[in-house]
Design a protein that fits this description.
By secondary structure, the protein is of the alpha/beta class. It is built from 15 helices and ten strands. Helices cover 44% and strands 13% of the residues. Bound molecules: 3-methyl-2-oxobutanoic acid and zinc ion (ZN).
């Protein structure tokens, strides 16, 4: 197995399950082309069981996904598998992720079946899917609340029926990082070193990214995630955060992805625009403030050496420089640097002090001072 961590992007499938999000066919194709540029290892294009329109959209997506896997999500039903095969008939590397319930709650309450019935269903569905797809990945559903022995029986049944990888989703975002790491280590020990282990984390308790990274430390080699963390309920683990952590803390994880990191910002912006889901200012890696320095002490440090308060440069992910924010926390060093950037040379220390005082007054309510406003403040103090 390769040593890099593979990324399976599910923005088009689980990402679209975010309340209020609906991508058009053209949106999906545009996002898929960008995911190609970014270099993800797998594009999960959709859930063909949902509609004919979804099948058509997956077909369109699969035509532009080249040099990597295109995946669909299917239930362990022959009818779903047939729709999946139809949806991926043009794909270069078609993959089915076939899922079945594995927790007692899902098996009994949601499904009204016994474990033996579920095992029989998994065996039949995996065998049927293997004849129609290049690869079949078996995914449990609600894995983190499942009895470990039941889970192992489900995975072993799927593998002996022909599945080539297993997927470990935290469907309801219930697991905690150390616990999820231990679970993944157990699955890795069960399937051996040569079988792919994909993980897929939801963010209900705000630890989707932490769980994904813990899984990588414990033997997962494929991470399923979405751009900007969009997805069902509180969303999925955010791709950009996982990939950036693996790159910036390579010393710790010892494995990184093969993505073109400088396409991350553009992809995040595209997904935000087409999904209509805004990116919070303080969102790690891609938020407007992720690389902005506001406090006087921080600005002073960054002006001497950026690494004092920056763990990476925005250019790493292709983001524009945000640099120094002029606002209520700005100090002498920050203002002086900003004025130099704007080619402003104030005639005296008195004028400088007056400009700084007015900046602080105007920004008192939290409004940052943009360049045009700063220049008008300067003007008021030099004439
Ligand atoms: O979260 C999940 O379990 C999923 C599928 C694999 C059903 O998105
Ligand atoms: Zn999911």
């Amino acid at each position: 197995m390769t040593d890099h961590v593979q990324i399976s992007d599910t923005t088009l499938r689980d990402g679209e399950q975010a309340a209020g999000v609906a991508f058009s066919l053209d949106d999906k194709v545009e996002i898929a082309k960008q995911l190609n540029r970014l270099g993800v290892d797998e594009v999960e294009a959709g859930f063909p069981g949902s509609s004919e329109a979804e099948v058509a959209a997956i077909q369109a997506v699969s035509r532009v996904v080249t040099g990597r896997r295109t995946a669909v999500l299917v239930r362990a039903l022959r009818s779903d598998i047939d729709k999946g095969a139809e949806a991926l008939k043009f794909a270069e590397q078609p993959v089915a992720t076939l899922f079945a319930p594995v927790s007692e709650l899902h098996i009994r309450v949601k499904f009204g079946k016994t474990l033996d019935e579920v095992l029989a269903m998994i065996e039949d569905a995996v065998q049927y899917a293997c004849k129609r797809f290049q690869q079949v990945i078996f995914s449990g559903e609600d894995v983190t609340r499942a009895d470990p022995e039941t889970l192992e029986r489900c995975y072993l049944t799927a593998l002996s029926a022909g599945a080539s990888m297993v997927s470990v989703p935290d469907t309801v975002g219930y697991a905690q990082p150390e616990e999820f790491g231990r679970l993944v280590a157990r699955v890795r020990a069960l399937v051996g070193p040569d079988t792919g282990v994909r993980i897929h984390c939801h963010n209900d308790l705000g630890v989707g990214v932490a769980n994904s990274l813990a899984a990588v430390r414990h033997g997962a080699n494929i991470v399923s995630c979405t751009f900007n963390g969009i997805g069902e309920r509180a969303g999925n683990a955010a791709l950009e955060e996982i990939v950036a952590a693996l790159a910036i803390r390579e010393d710790y994880y010892q494995r990184k992805t093969r993505l073109k990191l400088d396409e991350i910002y553009a992809t995040s912006q595209l997904v935000s625009r087409l999904s209509g889901v805004a990116i919070g200012d303080t969102k790690p890696i891609v938020g407007a403030n992720a690389f902005a320095h506001s406090a006087g002490i921080h600005q002073h440090g960054v002006l001497q050496d950026r690494s004092t308060y920056e763990i990476a440069s925005p250019s790493l992910i292709g983001a524009p420089e945000r640099g120094l924010v002029i606002g209520k926390h700005t100090g002498h060093h920050g203002l002086r640097a900003k004025l130099t950037q704007l080619h402003v040379d104030l005639p005296s220390q008195g004028a400088f002090d007056a400009v700084l005082a007015e900046v602080k007054l105007r920004a008192h309510n939290g409004t940052d001072i943009d360049d045009a406003t700063l220049l008008s403040i300067v003007k008021g103090h030099v004439n």
